[in-house]
Request: fold
Amino acid sequence: MILSIVGYGDPVLRKVGDNITQDYAGLQELIQNMYETMYSASGVGLAAPQVGLPIRLFVIDAAPFAELEGNTEEEAAFLRTLKKTFINAKILKEEGEEWSFNEGCLSIPDIHEGVKRKERITIEYYDENFVRHEEVFDGLAARVIQHEYDHIEGVLFTDKISSLKKKLISKKLTNILEGKIFTDYKMRFAQKKGR
Reply:
């Protein structure tokens, strides 16, 4: 089932997510619905707060990034197969040089800005079967994970841009808040008139 994606300004996007247990009601169905919702919106990641749930769960599928210019064959092959579910994730380490990449977000449509992030992360998480993992990711894989991880920490990519850029996009953010935008996927807006 395709879920509505929560738009910028909804308080759930600012909550630090709660850990869940493997008996969380409807967990497998929720994970399946989140993948379906992400694919229908042409996203590479989706976090539970983006569908209105303040829990520590996100899904990614980095395959669309495999074809970006500049990837080595090895990176492209890895990104093509990088489809994972992260439950109760905790980033243990961020290291390496900071690098900028033009990021967007399904909850903040039509806005893309350069965001600096560290190039490598070590993350601990549980998969959809509640098996614990500790893994290292770098490059675009690390970036996709860091972006979704921010969502379960109540952080948006727009928090990481300069105040000047925030000023330049403030009207667009207000339009999202008020539902004065069009997307080709289902959204729920924080202040849409007539709700």
